[in-house]
C-alpha cells in the first residue's frame, strides 16, 4: 500500500520536474545557511563555516543527485528521454519516419483486415458446443452435392449406426411461412427434430427446446422463434412464452426464443423453428417409399475420427443403396461424412488461404522495407553512434535507443494500421459476395488486435535489433564515409526478395484480372439490358391450390402486359446464368432411338418450365424450328424446346424437330421437340455450359406445382421507370403480397461478385506490394549512389562521361531487378497452379499475364532506379572530391 | 550501495520519525542536528543522505512537508508526522526492539 503510494508519487514526480528541483535547491540553500550561521555562532569565520557545512552535506551536486534518484523513477526517465530523442530524430527526418510508418500501417492494416475475414472461415470455432466433433452426414449424387438423407432409411441408420453419439435432422431448406397478426409478416420457417438443438449444444435464451412429445405426429403445434423476431416483432415481450401465434393460419404456441445470432449448420438464419414430427410409418410410405429428404448432422463419439465413422457406416450405406435405389442409379449415389466446417466453408477455404498467404507476403515485403529503411538510417548515423559510444554510452544504452525508435515506429504503424484495417474491413464487407460465409459479420476483435500488436512488436524487434547489435566502429569517427558493405549486401538481398515477392503477387493478380475480364466480357446468350425479374411470394395458405396459384400468375401476366413500353412478360421457374435452377440427369432422358440410356452417365441437364414469351424476353434465338406459341398454352400437346447443345447430344447428325423425348421424371409422358434454342450460359458464370431443356408451361394446373415461379419482364423503358409500375400492378391484384424485384443485370453482377472480390483484393495487395518494393528499391539505389559519391567524383575527374555514371548506377538497379524478378517469376510460375480453380478462360501459366506483369515491374523499377541515377549523374566532381 | 546502506537507511528513517514525534515539526537541518545530539554525538551524519530518506518517508505518506519560518527567521521546509507515520513508528519500534533483543541473546550468551 505504502509502496504503491510511493511508486505513484515518483511517477507523478516525472511531470513538471523543474519546480521540484527548484524547491529542493531552496531547501538545500536554507540548510547550508542555517548550518553556516551555527558555525559562525560557534566562532568560525563565515568562509570556514560554510566550507564545513558543505563538507558535512557531502556536496551539493551529490545531494541533488541522490534526491533526484529518489524523487522520480530514473529508468523511466531514461525511457522518456529516449522517446523524446527518437521523436526529435523523426521530426528531423520526416521522410524516413513517414515512409516507415506508412509501410508498417499498410502491412499491418491489410494483414489485420484479411485475418479478421478469414479467421471465421479457417480458424475460429463454429458457434456450437465442441463443433469439431459435429459432422454432416448423408448421401450425395450428381444433382445434389450437399449431404441429404431420405426419411425412408433414416430410421434404419439411427437404429444401426455405431460411430455417433447422436444424430438429428433439419428440413432441407427454409420455407416461407406467414405470421398472421395485426401486422402480418412473411417469415422463414424450418422444421427440426427435438434432438437437433441439443446436438449442436444450443439452448434457447428463453423458454425451452421441443419435448419428444411435441416432436411426434399429432403432437401440439409449438414453435421456437428467433431472437430477431422476438426483438423486432414482439419488442422483447417477456410474456411471449406460451402465447398463441397464428402461423400459416394455424394457432401455434411459442415455447422458446433462440439465442441471438443463432445460425443453422447450413449457414441459414431461421425466423421460426418447428418440430419436425417425423413418423417412421409415414416416412416409409410417402414419396414412393423414399420418405422426405432432410439434412442430417451427427456428433462423433469420443475418439472416433471421421475416417473411422465413414468405414463403420459403409456397410449400412451399401445395404441402404441395395434396398432403396434401383440398380441403374446406384453408382450415382455415394455416402459423404464431413466436418461441419468443411460443409459450411467448402468452396471458400482455398480462397481464404490464398488471401491469407497473399497478405502475409505483403506483410513480409513491408517488414523487409522497414528493415531496409532502418539499416539505411543506421548506416547514415554510424558516426553519431560512434561519437556517443566514445563519449561513454554503453552498448546496452545504444541498443535501447535503437529499440526505442523501432518500438515507436511500430506503435505508430500499428495504430495507423488498425485504423486502416477498420476501413479496409468495411470495404471488404461492402463488396463481399454473399457466397463467402460469415464475412458480413467479420469485425476487428480483441484477438485480431492483439495479433496486430504482436506482429508490429516482432517487426520492431526484428528491424530494430539488427542494426543495433553491431558495434560502432571507431573508424566511423573519422570523417570518411563509413564502409558499410555488409549492410549493403543485406539490403540488396532484402530488395531482391521484395521484388521477387511482389512479382508473385503481381502475377497472381494479373491472372485473376484476365480471368475476371473473361467473365465480364463473355457472351451470356441472353439479353440482360432492360430485363427485370419479379419474384412474388404468394402466401401459401391463401393460395394453396395449384389452380389458385396459376390464376394469380396468369392475372399478373395480363396486368403487366398492359403496362406501356413492355416488350414481353414471361413466367419461368428460374433464369440463367446461375442461382437456383431445376435439373436432372442426362440419363433420365429417353428417346425413341435410345429408350434405355446408360444410367448415371452424361452429367446433368438444366430444365426450365417457361411460358412462350420467355425466349423473346431474354432474346434467346431459336435456331431451328419454332419456339412455343400462345396457342400451345391451351393445347393438350406436350412440347419441349432443346438447347443446341442438348439437341446435338441427343440426336447427333439428325434433325431433332419432331423427335420425341421421355423424361424419366414425368413417368412415361412423351414430349415432342418443336424447336432448338441457342445455348445460354446456364451453370454460373465460370462453369461450362450444360445442356438445357425447356418445357412449356401451359395453362393447366399440373404445370404449376412445385417451386414458385418468377416473372421476367422485358421493357424498352429504363428499369427504374418500369419497376414501380410493376409493383403497382401486382399490388392492385393483392396488396398484401410481397414482391422482390431485381434487374437481370444486378443478378448477374452479384454472381460475379465472388471473382470480383478475389480480384480486387489480390489486385490491391499486388499494388501495395509493388509500391513498397519499389520504395525499397529506390531507397537502396539512392543509398548506394550516395555512398559512391567520391568514387563518382574520381571517375568524372578521370574523364568518365555523365552517361557512363548513369550506366554505373543503373547497372546496380538492373542487377537487383533481374535477380529478384527471376526468382519471383520462377516462384510465381510454380505457385500459380494453386489459383487454377479461380481462373476462367485463362491458364495458370498464361504467357500474356506473366509478360505483362514482368514488363510492369521492370518499368516501375526502371523509374525507381533512374531517379537516383540521374541525381548521381549530376554530381559535381569538385563537390564530390571535397567530401574526401 | 549494498546491505550496509540499506540497514543504515532503514534506521535513519526510524530515527527521523521518532525525532519528529518527540520534537514536533522540524526542518531538515534541525532534524539532522537533533539526531546527532540524541545519539550522543556518536553518529557522524552525512546530511546529504537525510533528504532522500525524508523524501522517501514523504512519498510513503508517513510525513508531510511545508515551507515555514525557522526560529532564526529564516525560510525553511518543515517536516511533520502524519497519522500513518505514528502508526509506522509503533510498528517499527516494536520490530526493532524484537530484533535487538534476539541479537542481544546471541551476543551476550547467559
Instruction: State the helix count of chain A.
Output: 28
As laid out across the biggest beta sheet of chain B, the strand order is 1-3-2
Portion in strands of chain B: 5-15%
Low-confidence runs of at least 5 consecutive residues of chain A: 479-483
Distance between the termini of chain A: 63 Å
Question: Whole-number radius of gyration of chain B?
Answer: 15 Å
The helix/strand series of chain B, from N terminus to C terminus, equals: HEHHEEH
Provide structural commentary:
The complex is a heterodimer of chains A (884) and B (110). Chain A contains 28 helices and 24 strands. In chain A, helix 7 packs across helix 11. Chain B is built from 4 helices and 3 strands. A 3-stranded antiparallel β-sheet of chain B has the order 1-3-2. The longest helix of chain B is centred in the last third of the chain and has 25 residues. The radius of gyration of chain B is 15 Å and the shape is globular. The N terminus of chain B is likely disordered. Chains A and B meet through helix 1, helix 2 and helix 4 of A and helix 2, helix 3 and strand 3 of B.
Quick gist of this model?
The complex is a heterodimer of chains A (884) and B (110). Chain A is α+β, with helices and mostly antiparallel strands.
Keywords:
heterodimer, A: 884 residues, alpha+beta, seven-stranded mixed beta sheet, 28 helices, 24 strands, B: 110 residues, 3 strands, 64% helix, 15% strand, globular, disordered N terminus
Q: What order do the helices and strands come in, and which of them pair?
A:
The complex is a heterodimer of chains A (884) and B (110).
Chain A: H1 2-12, H2 17-41, H3 46-57, H4 60-71, H5 74-92, H6 94-123, E1 134-141, E2 144-150, H7 151-160, E3 164-170, E4 175-179, E5 185-192, H8 196-200, E6 206-207, E7 222-225, H9 227-232, E8 244-247, E9 250-257, E10 272-275, H10 280-283, E11 293-300, H11 306-324, H12 327-330, E12 334-339, H13 340-345, H14 349-380, H15 382-390, H16 395-431, H17 446-468, H18 485-521, E13 531-536, H19 546-561, E14 566-572, E15 582-585, E16 589-591, E17 604-610, H20 614-617, E18 622-625, E19 639-643, H21 644-650, E20 660-663, E21 671-677, E22 692-696, E23 710-715, H22 719-733, E24 739-743, H23 744-751, H24 753-787, H25 789-797, H26 802-831, H27 847-873, H28 877-882
Chain B: H1 3-23, E1 26-27, H2 28-38, H3 47-59, E2 63-69, E3 75-81, H4 83-107
Antiparallel strand pairs in B: 1-3, 2-3
Amino acid at each position: 500500500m505504502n509502496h504503491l503510494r510511493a511508486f505513484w508519487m515518483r511517477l507523478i514526480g516525472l511531470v513538471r520536474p523543474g519546480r521540484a528541483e527548484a524547491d529542493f535547491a531552496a531547501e538545500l540553500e536554507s540548510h547550508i545557511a542555517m548550518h553556516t550561521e551555527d558555525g559562525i555562532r560557534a566562532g568560525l569565520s563565515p568562509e570556514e563555516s560554510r566550507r564545513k557545512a558543505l563538507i558535512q552535506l557531502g556536496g551539493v551536486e551529490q545531494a541533488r543527485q541522490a534526491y533526484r534518484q529518489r524523487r522520480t523513477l530514473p529508468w523511466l526517465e531514461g525511457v522518456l528521454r529516449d522517446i523524446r530523442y527518437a521523436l526529435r530524430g523523426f521530426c528531423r527526418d520526416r521522410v524516413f519516419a513517414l515512409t516507415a510508418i506508412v509501410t508498417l500501417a499498410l502491412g499491418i492494416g491489410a494483414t489485420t483486415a484479411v485475418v479478421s475475414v478469414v479467421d471465421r472461415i479457417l480458424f475460429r470455432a463454429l458457434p456450437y458446443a465442441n463443433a469439431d466433433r459435429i459432422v454432416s452426414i448423408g448421401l450425395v449424387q450428381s444433382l445434389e452435392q450437399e449431404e441429404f438423407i431420405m426419411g425412408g432409411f433414416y430410421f434404419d441408420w439411427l437404429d444401426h449406426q455405431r460411430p455417433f453419439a447422436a444424430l438429428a435432422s433439419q428440413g432441407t431448406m427454409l420455407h416461407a411461412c406467414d405470421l398472421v397478426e395485426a401486422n402480418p409478416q412473411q417469415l422463414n420457417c424450418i422444421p427440426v427434430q427435438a434432438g437437433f438443438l441439443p446436438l449442436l449444444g444450443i439452448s434457447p435464451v428463453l423458454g425451452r427446446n421441443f419435448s419428444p412429445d411435441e416432436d411426434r405426429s399429432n403432437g401440439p403445434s409449438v414453435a421456437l422463434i428467433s431472437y430477431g423476431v422476438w426483438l423486432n416483432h414482439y419488442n422483447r415481450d417477456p410474456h411471449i412464452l406460451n402465447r398463441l401465434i397464428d402461423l400459416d393460419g394455424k394457432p401455434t404456441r411459442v415455447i422458446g426464443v433462440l439465442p441471438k445470432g443463432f445460425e443453422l449448420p447450413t449457414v441459414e438464419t431461421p425466423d421460426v423453428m418447428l418440430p419436425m414430427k417425423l413418423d417412421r410409418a409415414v416416412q416409409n410410405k410417402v414419396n414412393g417409399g423414399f420418405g422426405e429428404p432432410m439434412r442430417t448432422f451427427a456428433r462423433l463419439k469420443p475418439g472416433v475420427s471421421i475416417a473411422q465413422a465413414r468405414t463403420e457406416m459403409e456397410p449400412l450405406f451399401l445395404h441402404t443403396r441395395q434396398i432403396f435405389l434401383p440398380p441403374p442409379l446406384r453408382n450415382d449415389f455415394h455416402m459423404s461424412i464431413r466436418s461441419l466446417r468443411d460443409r459450411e466453408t467448402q468452396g471458400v477455404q482455398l480462397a481464404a488461404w490464398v488471401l491469407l498467404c497473399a497478405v502475409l507476403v505483403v506483410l513480409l515485403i513491408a517488414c523487409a522495407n522497414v528493415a531496409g529503411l532502418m539499416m539505411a538510417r543506421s548506416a547514415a548515423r554510424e558516426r553519431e553512434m560512434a561519437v556517443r559510444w566514445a563519449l561513454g554510452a554503453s552498448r546496452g544504452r545504444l541498443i535501447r535507443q535503437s529499440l526505442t525508435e523501432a518500438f515507436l515506429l511500430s506503435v505508430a504503424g500499428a495504430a495507423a494500421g488498425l485504423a486502416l484495417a477498420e476501413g479496409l474491413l468495411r470495404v471488404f464487407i461492402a463488396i463481399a459476395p454473399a457466397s463467402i460465409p460469415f464475412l458480413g459479420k467479420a469485425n476487428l476483435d480483441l484477438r485480431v488486435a492483439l495479433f496486430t500488436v504482436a506482429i508490429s512488436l516482432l517487426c520492431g524487434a526484428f528491424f530494430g535489433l539488427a542494426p543495433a547489435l553491431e558495434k560502432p566502429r571507431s573508424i566511423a569517427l573519422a570523417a570518411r564515409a563509413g564502409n558499410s558493405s555488409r549492410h549493403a549486401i543485406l539490403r540488396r538481398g532484402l530488395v531482391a526478395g521484395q521484388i521477387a515477392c511482389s512479382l508473385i503477387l503481381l502475377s497472381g493478380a494479373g491472372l485473376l484480372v484476365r480471368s475476371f475480364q473473361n467473365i465480364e466480357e463473355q457472351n451470356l446468350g441472353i439479353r440482360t439490358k432492360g430485363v427485370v425479374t419479379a419474384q412474388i411470394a404468394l402466401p401459401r395458405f391463401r393460395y394453396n391450390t395449384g389452380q389458385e396459384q396459376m390464376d394469380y400468375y396468369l392475372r399478373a401476366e395480363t396486368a403487366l402486359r398492359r403496362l406501356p413500353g413492355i416488350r414481353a412478360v414471361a413466367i419461368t421457374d428460374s433464369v440463367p446464368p446461375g442461382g437456383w435452377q431445376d435439373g436432372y440427369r442426362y440419363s433420365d432422358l429417353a428417346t425413341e432411338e435410345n429408350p434405355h440410356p446408360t444410367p448415371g452417365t452424361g452429367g446433368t441437364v438444366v430444365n426450365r418450365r417457361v411460358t412462350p414469351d420467355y425466349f423473346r424476353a431474354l432474346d434467346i434465338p431459336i435456331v431451328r424450328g419454332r419456339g412455343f406459341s400462345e396457342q400451345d398454352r391451351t393445347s393438350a400437346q406436350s412440347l419441349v424446346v432443346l438447347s443446341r447443345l442438348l439437341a446435338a447430344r441427343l440426336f447427333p447428325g439428325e434433325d431433332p424437330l419432331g423427335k420425341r423425348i421421355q423424361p424419366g421424371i414425368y413417368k412415361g409422358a412423351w414430349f415432342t421437340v418443336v424447336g432448338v434454342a441457342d445455348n445460354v450460359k446456364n451453370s454460373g458464370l465460370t462453369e461450362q455450359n450444360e445442356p438445357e431443356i425447356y418445357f412449356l408451361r401451359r395453362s393447366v394446373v399440373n404445370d404449376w406445382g412445385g417451386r414458385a415461379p418468377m416473372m421476367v419482364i422485358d421493357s424498352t423503358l429504363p428499369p427504374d421507370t418500369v419497376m414501380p409500375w410493376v409493383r403497382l400492378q401486382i399490388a392492385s391484384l393483392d396488396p398484401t403480397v410481397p414482391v422482390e424485384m431485381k434487374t437481370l443485370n444486378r443478378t448477374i453482377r452479384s454472381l460475379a461478385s465472388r471473382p470480383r472480390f478475389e480480384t480486387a483484393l489480390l489486385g490491391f495487395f499486388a499494388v501495395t506490394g509493388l509500391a513498397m518494393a519499389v520504395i525499397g528499391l529506390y531507397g537502396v539505389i539512392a543509398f548506394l549512389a550516395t555512398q559512391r559519391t567520391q568514387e563518382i567524383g574520381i571517375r568524372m575527374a578521370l574523364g568518365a562521361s555523365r552517361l557512363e555514371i548513369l550506366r554505373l548506377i543503373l547497372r546496380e538497379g538492373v542487377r537487383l531487378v533481374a535477380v529478384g524478378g527471376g526468382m519471383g517469376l520462377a516462384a510465381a510460375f510454380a505457385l500459380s497452379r494453386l489459383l487454377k480453380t479461380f481462373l476462367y478462360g485463362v491458364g495458370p501459366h498464361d504467357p500474356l499475364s506473366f509478360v505483362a506483369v514482368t514488363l510492369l515491374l521492370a518499368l516501375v523499377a526502371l523509374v525507381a532506379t533512374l531517379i537516383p541515377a540521374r541525381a548521381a549523374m549530376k554530381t559535381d566532381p569538385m563537390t564530390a572530391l571535397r567530401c574526401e | 550501495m549494498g546491505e550496509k546502506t540499506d540497514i543504515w537507511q532503514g534506521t535513519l528513517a526510524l530515527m527521523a520519525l521518532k525525532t519528529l514525534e518527540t520534537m514536533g515539526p522540524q526542518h531538515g537541518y534541525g532534524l539532522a542536528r537533533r539526531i546527532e545530539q540524541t545519539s550522543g554525538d556518536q553518529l557522524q551524519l552525512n546530511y546529504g543522505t537525510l533528504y532522500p530518506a525524508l523524501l522517501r518517508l514523504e512519498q510513503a505518506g508517513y510525513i508531510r512537508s511545508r515551507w515555514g519560518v525557522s526560529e532564526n527567521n529564516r525560510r525553511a521546509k518543515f517536516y511533520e508526522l502524519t497519522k500513518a507515520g505514528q502508526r509506522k513508528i509503533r510498528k517499527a519500534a516494536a520490530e526493532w526492539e524484537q530484533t535487538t533483543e534476539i541479537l542481544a541473546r546471541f551476543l551476550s550468551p547467559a
